[in-house]
């Protein structure tokens, strides 16, 4: 009988992979327990799971806001959807120690969330704008404390899978949506021409 002893380089790689899986376990457990798509293997595993969690939480916030307002998501609320998606993605990414992966999840998540309301093209443009603006706020002195609270709240929900914590997180996100400026019926015609900052260029949405 012989015992195989891996080289130091291979042993470190194994240990690193094991540590990463242990850190990602809370997210995977949360997704499975809530019957959400959970990818367990593959190069995009982390971003796919972050995207699933982001969409799950923001969809709940949108549903709560729609119920509270008694009407569909307004065009003027679309940028706020992108911002809370970024906050949610960052919170979960920080929890699993994958801080560089939140941007992709926020981009994909926001585009998917807004596609039913604004179309794929507008959703994708707005996702890019929201992610850039949110990234800029993280590296400046003008941190949006409300969004940071949402990030921490979402991380706590995934880590503890606690219903009261989840209700609080959804409430915070719904409040953020409610704070978005609303257009009166008389301004509805102009809502279709909202302009989104894309960094040096202006994108005009033609989708209501």
Keywords:
single chain; 208 residues; mainly alpha; two-stranded antiparallel ribbon; 2 strands; disordered C terminus
Structure description:
This protein is mainly α and 208 residues long. It has one domain. 68% of the residues lie in helices and 3% in strands. The protein has a two-stranded antiparallel ribbon. Helix 1 packs parallel to helix 2, helix 3 packs antiparallel against helix 4 and helix 4 runs antiparallel to helix 5.
What class, by secondary structure content? mainly alpha
Oligomeric description of these chains: single chain
Largest sheet report: 2 strands, antiparallel
Following the backbone from N to C, one meets helices and strands in this order, namely: HHHHHHHHEE
What topology emerges from the helices and strands here?
Elements: H1 8-33, H2 45-69, H3 78-95, H4 102-118, H5 120-138, H6 145-160, H7 163-178, H8 188-191, E1 195-197, E2 202-204
Antiparallel strand pairs: 1-2
Helix pairs in contact: 1-2, 2-3, 2-4, 2-7, 3-4, 3-5, 3-6, 4-5, 6-7
At a glance:
The protein is an all-alpha fold and 208 residues long. The chain is 68% helix and 3% strand.
């Amino acid at each position: 009988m012989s015992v195989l002893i891996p080289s130091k380089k291979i042993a470190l790689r194994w240990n690193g992979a094991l540590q990463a899986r242990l850190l990602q376990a809370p997210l995977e457990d949360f997704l499975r327990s809530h019957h959400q798509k959970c990818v367990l293997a593959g190069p995009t595993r982390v971003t796919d799971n972050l995207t699933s969690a982001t969409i799950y939480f923001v969809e709940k916030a949108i549903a709560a806001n729609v119920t509270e307002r008694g009407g569909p998501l307004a065009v003027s609320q679309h940028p706020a959807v992108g911002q809370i998606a970024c906050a949610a993605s960052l919170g979960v990414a920080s929890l699993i120690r994958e801080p560089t992966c939140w941007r992709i999840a926020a981009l994909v998540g926001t585009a998917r969330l807004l596609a039913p309301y604004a179309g794929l093209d507008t959703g994708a443009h707005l996702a890019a704008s929201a992610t850039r603006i949110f990234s800029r706020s993280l590296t400046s002195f003008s941190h949006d404390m409300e969004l940071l609270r949402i990030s921490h709240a979402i991380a706590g929900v995934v880590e503890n899978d606690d219903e009261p914590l989840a209700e609080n997180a959804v409430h915070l996100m719904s409040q953020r949506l409610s704070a978005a400026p609303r257009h009166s019926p008389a301004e509805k015609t102009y809502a279709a021409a909202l302009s989104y900052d894309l960094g040096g260029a202006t994108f005009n949405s033609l989708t209501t």
